[in-house]
């Protein structure tokens, strides 16, 4: 294994971390109008991810930066061909981040409802389009001999990629539901557990069909292990959620996302962006890579700084590990609900 293979693996790890961590963020945002019956409920939902959502997005920034540095031709072809879709994702993420920060700035029901809509928009759109994007990366896109994208926006809207988008949308919603069951109390916890069951009944067959299609059309012999692992973990997660074991349920949905991402990158390798025009035009880990010197410098930087980042993010999750309840949400005058009622 040379440095190009190592960096392909590291980029796969970064995307895996992003989908696992940001996946439940997206799920919580999507479920805001479903589980949030009043403003206090919605504040409970937002507070479960409030301390960590921006840190989870760092995985996306690092994955994009690593792709640019390690495989500049992959980055260039990808962003030129997927420009409109990636722009929509970027706008949605910006709107979502602004909504989290601005929602509580004015004490107005209309103001908060508008930002709630922005949170839902900023969660649904990326959850859907990331699946569409990776479906097209695995399937391949039309590239000419100069590795330039020759299709248009509607080329990306093919059945396989759309199924991939529907899969990520449903699995992230399920991931978010079990995360909320793990991080909330009382009625909210019960409602989140109850919602995980119908979400799982839809996510399991849709995700299973996408994984099967991926394996039969693009997979290799060993990726069957990842496909079966993802399917079993998803089923186990739904069963655990229904049985009230939300910790196991969250672990299983996380494993399912990991195994699915492994399946996609395993089916892609050694290409990084296949060409549907002519296989000779495909970008691979060899012809899309930076110079060996660049990869060597990047490797040493990763060796020193990656453990620090992981330790810091792990510490953040440990500090904010307790469940969030309605009683902890301040009302007017800054008093929590329980304190206000006692007063």
List the helices and strands and how they pair.
Elements lengths: L2 H28 L1 H4 L3 H11 L3 H18 L1 H10 L1 H20 L6 H31 L19 H25 L2 H33 L4 H20 L3 H23 L2 E3 L9 E2 L7 H28 L17 H6 L1
Antiparallel strand pairs: 1-2
Helix pairs in contact: 1-4, 1-7, 1-8, 1-11, 4-5, 4-12, 6-7, 7-8, 7-11, 8-9, 8-11, 9-10, 9-11, 10-11
Structural key phrases:
mainly alpha, 13 helices, 343 residues, single chain, Formate dehydrogenase/DMSO reductase fold, disordered C terminus, two-stranded antiparallel ribbon
Describe the structure.
By secondary structure, the chain is an all-alpha fold. The protein has one domain: Up-down Bundle (Formate dehydrogenase/DMSO reductase fold). It is built from 13 helices and two strands, in the order αααααααααααββαα. The chain has helices at residues 3-30, 32-35, 39-49, 53-70, 72-81, 83-102, 109-139, 159-183, 186-218, 223-242, 246-268, 292-319, 337-342; strands spanning 271-273, 283-284. The chain has a two-stranded antiparallel ribbon with strand order 1-2.
